[in-house]
Amino acid sequence: MPEPEVLSLVEFEDTPPGHRSGFVAVVGKPNVGKSTLMNALLGEKVAIVSKKPQTTRTQIRGILTRPDAQIVFVDTPGIHKPRHRLGQAMVQAAIQSIPDADVVLFVVDSTEAPDAGDRHIARLVRERGEDRPVILALNKMDRLRPDQVKAHTEAHWALAPTPEGGAPPEPWDWMMISATQIVNLDKLVDRIVAHLPEGPRYYPPDQITDQGERDIAAESIREQALRHLRQEVPHAVAVVIEEHEERSATLDYIAATIVVEKDSQKGILIGKGGRTLRQIGADARHEIERILGKQVYLELQVKVRKNWREDERELRRLGYASEQ
Ligand code: GDP
Ligand code: MG
User: Fold this and answer.
1) Are 9 and 301 in contact (CB under 8 A)?
2) How far apart are CA 65 and CA 19, in angstroms?
3) Quick one: pLDDT at residue 60?
4) Does residue 16 contact residue 196 with C-beta atoms inside 8 Å?
5) pTM for the full model?
6) Mutation pick for ligand 1 pocket among 29, 32, 36, 184 (CB with most ligand atoms within 8 Å)
7) Domains of the chain by range and CATH?
């Protein structure tokens, strides 16, 4: 069957051997410096405040790409909201983000002794994180007085699973940083990367955050793809938004890729003469237009990536996977 011209089949860009990638849950009390730290790590362009209405889904706070690794920092509204008091919402948020993370970045304020709030988060991290690596970042070291160093570091170490004094045992790791003075941040990133599993890039290298619109578009396309493919390939579908550009106040351009595992699935997805894919595109476009309240020019392509869904957990975290 000849491929319709509108569809291009592109292999996924290879990442170098040994490339690492993964998700880092950023947790910590309000005011310990999580936002400042993210800004310092990712650059000022990061949109901390998403336009997206709050959902229960894990939110991506920022993406850090280096040649050898890609770190996706995630958190949830309840944890990062300033002035938010510890409560049910935060517990829920923490419970959701921690088990899905490869590494937990637990930020504390080193200038204060840990309090009930820190201990509460530590307990959640221990309970929900199981054996995940935890990096305890003792922030604001620029303001830590010499006479506080010993008492405060030891008190914070005690947040780790075996509070017998001394440095926290594996998989807990700790370091002193200053987000405002940019002290030890490179080292912090190195430590995080060292804990990440080998894996490919999840996002284009120039992307530093996700946007609500990207999610809306990806979800709509995936939903339509699954609706059309339910009988045939209900599982192996992922959608990646390659480009989402505001062409004018009334028109958005969106280029998206539907990723499947096998050539046979690609065939089913495209349909005879491209009919199925065109139908998916049309239905998804209507849905996106309805949600965004503007016209959308939608370009779809299909890629095959072998064993794309081998890691269901990873896919779920990205919101890509579909488990019926
Ligand atoms: P969040 O609620 O955890 O996101 O905390 P923010 O990032 O909003 O920071 C709370 C306050 O701590 C702000 O006034 C920051 O400027 C300050 N802060 C953050 N990191 C540092 C640091 O490394 N040193 C000092 N001295 N202040 C910091
Ligand atoms: Mg904040």
Assistant:
1) yes
2) 11
3) 58
4) no
5) 0.61
6) 36
7) 10-195 (3.40.50.300), 213-317 (3.30.300.20)
